[in-house]
Automatic annotation (TrEMBL):
SUPFAM superfamilies: C-type lectin-like. It is a single-pass type I membrane protein. It comes from the Eukaryota. It is found in: Membrane. The lineage of its organism: Eukaryota, Metazoa, Chordata, Craniata, Vertebrata. Residues 26-141 form the C-type lectin domain. Keywords: Lectin, Membrane, Signal, Transmembrane, Transmembrane helix. The keyword Membrane applies. GO terms for molecular function: carbohydrate binding. This is C-type lectin domain-containing protein.
Length: 161
């Protein structure tokens, strides 16, 4: 398992959560690649079992992690973007797809030039061979593995009233 965290990447990838008791936690993103044939649903379940979710790629910074995590691996790996039902919307940034986190917020997109516009459940994978562009595939087809995202707490501090 190859993984990486942006522990020193606080300004761009951290979230400060303040609890009702005045405590605050600083969270950052960690990513890991898991190899082994898996369809999208199984990959999603495996990430959840590890207390994470399939990787969301909302910025070019997240996109840049592909080359580090996947190294010389050339096969396709699932990320957390899917079209659970309906038809794609070619005019939208995410083309009607949504992240496994349930939203479609993103400042970044990187669709492959050939886009499957069929109205069936589709999921997105990436590979080094395609310069990590987002390729759509039937969700029940196996990919070579998947990329998970985790949140990691860096510190707990007490906020003064």
């Amino acid at each position: 398992i190859k993984s990486m965290c942006f522990k020193n990447f606080v300004e761009l990838n951290a979230t400060l959560s303040v609890g009702g008791d005045g405590s605050a936690s600083l969270w950052s993103e960690c990513f890991a690649v898991f190899q082994g044939p898996s369809d999208f649903t199984a990959a999603q379940t495996e990430c959840a079992d590890k207390k994470g979710h399939l990787m969301t790629v909302r910025s070019s910074v997240s996109h840049d992690t592909f080359s580090i995590l996947l190294g010389s691996l050339s096969e396709r790996f699932w990320i957390g973007l899917h079209l659970p039902s309906g038809c794609p919307d070619a005019s939208a940034k995410l083309r009607g797809f949504q992240w496994v986190t349930g939203d479609s917020e993103s400042d970044y997109y990187n669709w492959a030039p050939t886009f499957d516009s069929s109205c069936s459940p589709q999921c997105v994978s990436v590979s080094r061979g395609d310069n990590f562009t987002w390729a759509t595939e039937p969700c029940d087809q196996p990919a070579a593995g998947y990329l998970c995202e985790f949140k990691e707490a860096h510190s707990n501090i007490m906020m003064k009233p």
